[in-house]
Amino acid sequence: MDHCDVCRWRRHCEEKRRADDHMSLVAGISKSQIGELERRGVDTMSALAAMPIPLPWRPDRGAASSYERVREQARIQVEGRTADTMLHEVLPLEPGFGLFRLPEPSAGDIFFDFEGDPFVGDGGLEFLFGYLYADDGGVWQYTGDWASTRHEERAAFERFIDFVVERQKTHPNLHIYHFAPYEPAALKRLMGRYATRENDVDNLLRGEVFVDLYAVVRHAIRASVESYSIKKLEPLYGFNRSVPLEEVGVVMARTQARLEMADPEGIPEDDKAAVKGYNNDDCASTEALRRWLEALRADQIANGATIARPTAVVVELSEELTAWQQKVAALSARLLEGVPDDANERTDEQKGRWLLASMLDWHGREKKAVWWEYFRLRDLSADDLLHERSGLADIVFLEEVPGKGKVPTHRYRFAPQDTDIRTGDDLHTVGGDKFGKVIAVSLEARTIDIKKRKDTADVHPPAVFAHSSVDTQVLADAVMRLGEHVAEHGIEADGDYRAARDLVLAVAPRLQGLPPQQEGEASLAAAIRVALTLDRSVFPLQGPPGAGKTFTGARMICGLAKQGKTIGITANSHKVIRNLLDEVIKAAGEERRAIHCVQKVSDDEDDLPSLNFTKDNGEFLDALGGTAQVGGATAWFWARPDASQCVDVLFIDEAAQMSLANVLAVSQSAKSVVLLGDPRQLKQPIQGSHPDGADASALDHILGPHATIPADRGLFLPETWRLHPTICAFNSELFYESRLFSRPGLEKQQVKSTGKLRGAGLRYLPIEHSGNQSSSQEEADAVRDLVTNILGSATTWVNRDDVEAAIKLDDILIIAPYNAQVFELQERIPGGRVGTVDKFQGQEAPIVIYSVTTSSHLDAPRGMEFLYSANRLNVATSRAKCICVMVASPRVFEAECRTPRQMQLANAFCRYLEMAAPV
């Protein structure tokens, strides 16, 4: 429910906006578009409606087509206002969109709507599953399935999916109609949360059973409405609600409050009936909208248009997939034998078996999510892809560039937008056809080089999206082998897979009776001792920013090699593996000891004195069984059956970014496992929804509720070699339970200048702006001016050795949350070290400038979890040796928090503001 629909101040706000003829009345217009238009002298809806098209100017943000679209929307709204009636017009027909998305109606069709509250508990609650359908006599029936607890939510979810699957037996061509994409997204989330009905939901999604009428409407008609919500459209198709929105608003607020306070028994039956009545209206309105759209389609066909129905999708499961799913189900049942449904009643051993059962199809859930995302992107229009991080819109062919092979490589320019497309990504056009592979991306020049296919050499589409799928079966098989062993022998018994089973149970490491660090023992000495005494177990080492995680890990490896052990290294990328191998070779050189390393790579590389490369799994395995003491490879090698127990100790670098499932998969290759990483920095990238605990990284699983590793569970490196004490004090308090300290001498680090920045510590530069989401010209201008001031003020910096040097552009790290803001900054500061937080993990500079970009929490395009991410703030601020400057709108520090989690997120920003000095 939109809050404005039930707010008592709604009429006052609407009257004011209408009196001002404000552009926010235009349906679908964004705050950034309003800002752009106002800068160009367009400041009312009437002025926007009269703006000439095509545009006489190129927008600074977004594609020209998006401004032409809102201009046309303003036009029909002004015309409707003038005529004092609701108007609509059919948009030009485009195969694959709008009315082309309507399937043939079936007597089995279902009209579906959720009522949910994202603030109930951890992760929210779908408390009402509502659906409308015709019975065998053609009479409409409504089911409102109420759920006030997680247990009831799961049961309601299962009943709905079972109802649909059973109904498909008599109505195989049925579809589930909904308005907006929330319902399928919620079903995916519930499927993953409870690890139930996974195949059924996947079949419904792949069979394109869900039909989003909002997507149909957006591409079928233009109407004189201020919002394309179903409630605003209802006058268009003559639907009258039985429960007035104003009346249900108070009831809904009361109901959600009771649920949020874990008091569902306090919800009066009359309130439940009112909420169900409201939900029934939503389902009935969806059905009425479908009827109206079908009539509109029939009118267009009567007028000579050809509008094909979507092609029916037949879902056929491969024999391999079916066999795998049966295997997962059978093994899961064995692991869960005797495990109570209530998590609070489980013993530690039962918790371990439950978690392992949840891991069996972890890779399957991830794969489903990858393909669901592909199908979602495939169905978007070129304009829609402008707002997708996996998409590029408004691309224009520039030239052919030199490339390898017979097919050409073409360079395109793209519109300013926030994109995650990177080198190596496979690209597809609108509709899903394969297009080519990304050879290079320049965020500065906003160009992309694409190696074409033979069939796309002469194709130049208006938009593309990236999608890649990696075969993870070898990893899934390894987890399955672990599960089979536990089902057969138990999770706590001696024998094979001991390290993996320890990890599942999150037990303390076995270190021959000694603690991880003895009193008075230096961290490095403790780490090396632990490596030599680790007894078929898992040892976590947490290294905060600048604390020497890689340095320490390399010397642990050298210590093991000196004792004749064979060591493996893995991580999520070849680059990270190579970085640790290089440090191992450096450490061995400092000890004047020879060491032989080998790395399994994907591309040809020339051998180095202490490091050989191979692309062949057999050669790599032979090297480990021969002269190589250290071998580095990605998880796909270590999870292979023939890699079982091939090394004594496996080191997993950046383990906070590797899923628990993948760590379990690779752990079978070693007797013991060492986890290097920091859960307080960047998190693991996952796409699927998983049961509680199964979505964690290996390090997060061990830490549990702690921010730092408890002293009896592993080793925390307590000293940073990078941060000035005043910066360290912030990061230590907010992210490391006040356990992190600066090395002696770092207090000498400072900036000297006649300009705006001098000394050391946290700084805040307030910049007023509003409506900015993923880019802020105001902040970009301020950062440019600040950099100019720094470089033009005889600025120097003093390092920890008391050596003074001039500050150059390369000594300033400029960080932004979004690529769109990176574009803005790069245009103003050519040659500067500008990038997102992800790019700069592991790097450092005397001065860091962090452009927060978004005007307020309400403008955050990816929500509070991303903008206020404690992990990202930790990484951004901890790049700075001397000074960290946060450039932000004051309203960023005024977030309206609805949950303890949101308060926790906002707290870090507010504490920064308290500790920072103004610029």
Write the SSE topology.
Blueprint: H1 3-6, H2 10-20, H3 31-39, H4 45-49, H5 64-83, E1 88-90, E2 110-117, E3 125-134, E4 140-146, H6 150-170, E5 176-178, H7 182-194, H8 198-206, E6 210-212, H9 213-220, E7 221-223, H10 230-237, H11 245-260, H12 269-302, H13 319-335, H14 348-359, H15 362-378, E8 391-393, E9 396-401, E10 409-413, E11 426-429, E12 434-442, E13 447-452, E14 463-466, H16 473-489, H17 498-505, H18 523-533, E15 538-542, H19 549-562, E16 567-570, H20 574-590, E17 597-600, E18 611-614, H21 617-624, E19 630-632, H22 635-638, E20 647-652, H23 660-666, E21 670-677, H24 698-703, E22 715-716, E23 719-720, H25 725-735, E24 741-742, E25 750-752, E26 761-766, H26 777-791, E27 796-798, E28 804-806, E29 812-816, H27 819-828, E30 833-836, H28 837-840, E31 845-851, H29 864-867, H30 870-877, E32 880-888, H31 900-915, E33 917-918
Task: Give your account of this protein's structure.
- With 919 residues, this protein is α/β, with parallel strands linked by helices.
- The chain folds into five domains: 3-85, no CATH class; 98-302, Nucleotidyltransferase, domain 5 (2-Layer Sandwich), CATH 3.30.420; 318-470, Elongation Factor Tu (Ef-tu), domain 3, CATH 2.40.30; 503-717, P-loop containing nucleotide triphosphate hydrolases (Rossmann fold, 3-Layer(aba) Sandwich); 725-918, P-loop containing nucleotide triphosphate hydrolases (Rossmann fold), CATH 3.40.50.
- Helix content is 40%, strand content 17%.
- The protein has 31 helices and 33 strands.
- The strands form seven sheets. Strands 18-17-19-16-20-21-15-22 form an eight-stranded parallel beta sheet, sandwiched between helices.
- Helix 13 (319-335) runs antiparallel to helix 14 (348-359), helix 18 (523-533) crosses helix 19 (549-562) and helix 26 crosses helix 27.
- The model has no long low-confidence stretch (mean pLDDT 94).
